[in-house]
Amino acid sequence: MENLQIEKNIEKAKEALNLAEAVLITAGAGMGVDSGLPDFRGKEGFWRAYPYAKKLGLSFQELANPKWFKADPYLAWAFYGHRLNLYRNTQPHKGFYLLRDFVRKKGDNYFIFTSNVDGQFQKACFDQNKIVEIHGSIHYLQCIKPCSNDIWSADSIDIEVDMENFRAKDPLPKCVNCGDIARPNILMFGDWSWISDRTESQEFRLNLWLNRNEDKNIVIIEIGAGEAIPTVRWFGERIAKEYNGTLIRINPRDYTVPSNIKAIPIALGGLEAIKKLLE
Questions:
Q1: DSSP state of 140
Q2: For the chain, which domains are there?
Q3: d(CA 5, CA 197)
Q4: For 174-224, what is each residue's pLDDT tens digit?
Q5: Could you write out the three-class secondary structure of the chain?
Q6: Helix ranges restricted to H, 126-264
Q7: Measured between alpha carbons, how far is 196 from 136 in angstroms, rounded to an integer?
Q8: What CA–CA distance (Å, rounded) separates 146 from 61?
Q9: Which of 61, 71, 126, 227 is deepest in the core (most CB within 10 A)?
Q10: Cβ distance 132 to 113 under 8 Å?
Q11: In the β-sheet with 136-143, what is the strand arrangement from edge to edge?
Q12: Distance between CA 28 and CA 114 in Å, rounded?
């Protein structure tokens, strides 16, 4: 997309945001890149972030699989423990706060729908009751079996990882009920054991919000949601179509938009685009 077209689209998006009565923020992995988080784009991108996975010949999809918590829990918790520590130590970039200030000006009439499991929106002081984490959250745990539907906070656990050998050190997190290994309450690949109750409660609140705003002018701000796992993109497109809303798609690569909805593509990274729209 040429710079002139990007600037024109930014002006269109500004007009849409000015008229917005309800704001739906949708976000994929690209939202965290400007905070310094890896987006695992492609096998080589994942291997740059996790060289030991390259040594094992494992892609992100192969390693992000619940089978490792049974087959090799020290490997599984090396991966998820490192990510948990990374997300805990990462501060949300300025774009999060620009969005937060913007929705405040709109009377806090917003909701967030994200595939990210990092908890960055909560850390940026968005209302946790206005967030859907469609793939769960690394900050919550469940039993690997699972022995019950219990989901509990990971705040009390501390995972130390031997990065040279890519092994978590004892003690590994345990189920609070049966004492077996615990795992993050995240939807992984090939995952039939994920407990979705927490996410379903979040979706219930989102649907109530959508119903309350069905006659309002809804604007969807989508940031960094790629085509590889298109959950977030499809959701935003569906809402734009069903509620006659406007989708603003921010993505430096996957910025194409459908022709059957009101949509404005902005071919920039998340933070750069948010600054141009909201500063």
A1: E
A2: 3-278 (3.40.50.1220)
A3: 43
A4: 999 999 999 999 999 999 999 999 999 999 999 999 999 999 999 999 999
A5: CCHHHHHHHHHHHHHHHHHCCEEEEEECCHHHHCCCCCCCCHHHHHHHHCHHHHHHCCCHHHHCCCHHHHHCHHHHHHHHHHHHHHHHHCCCCHHHHHHHHHHHHCCCCEEEEECCCCCHHHHCCCCHHHEEECCEEEEEEEECCCCCCCCEECCCCCCCEECCCCEECCCCCECCCCCCEEEEEECCCCCCCCCCHHHHHHHHHHHHHHHHCCCCCEEEEEECCCCCCCHHHHHHHHHHHHCCCEEEEECCCCCCCCCCCEEEEECCCHHHHHHHHHC
A6: 197-212, 231-242
A7: 8
A8: 22
A9: 126
A10: yes
A11: 152-153, 136-143, 182-186
A12: 6
Quote the CA–CA distance of 191 and 117 in Å, as a whole number: 15
Q: Which two tokens stand for residue 258?
A: 């459908």
Place of tokens 């909701």: 111
Query: What are the structure tokens assigned to 188, written together?
Result: 């992984």
List the structure tokens of 39: 């987006």
Query: Quick check: helix, strand or coil at residue 114?
Result: strand
CA separation for the pair 256, 196 (Å, rounded): 31
Spacing of C-alpha 103 from chain mean position: 19
pLDDT in tens, 7-57: 999 999 999 999 999 999 999 999 999 999 987 777 788 898 899 999 999
And the tokens for 13? 């998006």
Quote helix, strand, coil % in the chain, to nearest 5: 40, 20, 40
User: Residue type for 225, please?
Assistant: A
pTM: 0.97
